[in-house]
Amino acid sequence: MIKIENVEKSFGELDILKGVSLTINKGDVVSILGASGSGKSTLVRCINGLEKIQAGTILVNELSVSDKKDLSNIRKNVSTVFQHFNLYPHLSIIDNITLAPIEVLGQSKEKATSKALELLQVVDLMDKANAFPAQLSGGQKQRIGICRALAMEPEYLLLDEVTSALDPEMTSEVLDVLAELARTGTTLIFVTHEIAFAKKISNRIVFLDEGKVRADLDKDNFFSATGGKKDPRIARFLEKMDSK
Ligand SMILES: Nc1ncnc2c1ncn2[C@@H]1O[C@H](COP(=O)(O)OP(=O)(O)O)[C@@H](O)[C@H]1O
Ligand SMILES: [Mg+2]
């Protein structure tokens, strides 16, 4: 379980997260929605300890991200995929995927390679194992980014706008992979602007607004006129996204 309680995060004078509380259970598929600048990426970065929080607590399976000696264990359980793929350009695809399992988890090269090949099959990119990142399209790179995160066999996968740099066809390639993960029970925390997709795969929707959780609702409730949409702020946001 990830337990976020009263988290405050500021950059200098700028208060970004203003008392965020949120619990994510194993098997949850939680979409985080909200306007640009509402603090979604900052929250993701706080969850895996890339940003230091000023107040509150974030516990991952009871371990605190604010505790330096816990953080390396947390990072073994939480993998993050960002908007930009950040693959190592000088390493082949297979080496990109096996690097962390070998270096961080201490897996043998054989074990890491066989797992990587399995993952490449899932995202339908077996034929790219020995290619280099520069030889791949954006959608392919992002599917490799997801493989690389999954190679760590994380309990929690954080995805921050993983499709926003992709064209529609590549987006659907990547979303197909995520839908499959959701179906097979991977815990996903999914920051996205793909509302229709969020509606399809999530069990819960969290709406962040100016650094606060404005709604944390069961998916059906969030999209219903008598639930989330009763909040004019949320209704307006959804209308605006719909008309895009
Ligand atoms: N490293 C940083 N230094 C200063 N301000 C930042 C930093 N990172 C994010 N911010 C500010 O925090 C706010 C929230 O950003 P972000 O979490 O990226 O929002 P979102 O992902 O919802 O679009 C924005 O106003 C952004 O400019
Ligand atoms: Mg963001």
From TrEMBL:
Superkingdom of origin: Bacteria
GO MF annotation list: ATP binding
Principal location listed in the UniProt entry: membrane
Residues spanning the membrane: none
Protein topology in the membrane: Peripheral membrane protein
Subcellular location: Cell inner membrane
Domain ABC transporter: 2-235
Gene3D superfamilies, per database record: P-loop containing nucleotide triphosphate hydrolases
SMART domains in the cross-refs: AAA
Signal peptide, first to last residue: none
Keywords: ATP-binding, Nucleotide-binding, Transport
Annotated family: Belongs to the ABC transporter superfamily.
Protein name, per record: Amino acid ABC transporter ATP-binding protein
Higher taxonomy: Bacteria, Pseudomonadati, Pseudomonadota, Gammaproteobacteria, Alteromonadales
